[in-house]
Design brief:
By secondary structure, this protein is an all-alpha fold. The protein has one domain. Helix content is about 75%, strand content about 0%. The protein has a two-stranded antiparallel ribbon. A hairpin with a 3-residue loop joins strand 1 and strand 2.
Length: about 250
């Protein structure tokens, strides 16, 4: 299969439409099982009590906020290098979801920190760099919306994404580089997991659900962006002209 053909909005649009129901169904499935394990099956933590259950949302949201930014930076770099129209559309479609997860990460972290640390917020290295990530998302949205020409907006947004990507490893390694109040990672590639297996499974399933949800939502949003940006092309005109005929059946 020639995957490069899907870099064109006209071919990516129908592909995205076919994929959305699958990813939405997977998000509901994994999310339901993950939350059932996290809220019902997993035992109470002997140190943090019931408050630890926020990890089933917080950890996945934190991971997704960083991962989505990296994906946006990838698309931004592709757009600068190859001048593909779809690249800018993908960054625009991903930005609101990344912003939501960045905010959710900070908010759930505050809810977790109050009973655990005794404070809603501290200027910890992990928390501060995560706040900067939220500002980068908001700055990207504000910058691209302030420029009328979509191609110029895409280039300006891509530059901001590539400059800001240095913040992602700072977030991830902050607990190792500095003496922070935030606890070290409970899961790592080299050391494995310090969590109980049932807790780990619940957290991972919730994270996969967030991943599937992000893909489904991004695909749905990028289809709308494609129709708006490509509205003057023949294929979009033909598509929109066929809609009344389909709705009348």
């Amino acid at each position: 299969m020639n995957w490069f053909k899907f870099s064109a909005p006209s071919t990516f649009y129908p592909l995205a439409g076919r994929l959305i129901p699958w990813f939405a169904a997977l998000a509901a499935l994994f999310g339901g099982v993950g939350l059932w394990i996290g809220l019902v099956v997993a035992p109470t933590d002997f140190q943090q009590g019931e408050a630890y259950r926020i990890i089933f949302i917080h950890v996945g949201a934190a991971w997704m906020s960083m991962f989505i930014y990296l994906v946006m930076a990838f698309w931004g770099g592709m757009g600068l290098a190859f001048k593909t129209r779809l690249s800018g559309m993908m960054t625009e479609a991903l930005a609101p979801t990344g912003t939501m997860f960045a905010f959710l990460s900070l908010w759930t972290g505050a809810l977790w920190g109050r009973p655990t640390w005794g404070a809603w917020w501290i200027w910890d290295a992990r928390l501060t760099s995560s706040l900067i990530l939220l500002f980068l998302y908001i700055g990207f949205i504000a910058l691209t919306r302030a420029i009328d020409d979509p191609r110029r907006a895409d280039r300006a947004g891509a530059v901001l994404l590539l400059v800001g990507v240095v913040n992602v490893p700072i977030i991830y390694f902050s607990v190792q580089w500095w003496n922070t109040l935030h606890q070290p990672a409970s899961l790592s590639v080299g050391k494995g997991s310090s969590m109980a297996a049932i807790m780990l499974w619940g957290m991972l399933l919730c994270t996969v659900a967030m991943w599937m949800y992000s893909i489904a939502l991004t695909l749905a949003r990028v289809r709308t962006i494609i129709l708006v940006r490509e509205r003057h092309t023949d294929w979009v005109r033909a598509l929109l002209a066929a809609l009344p005929a389909q709705n009348s059946r």
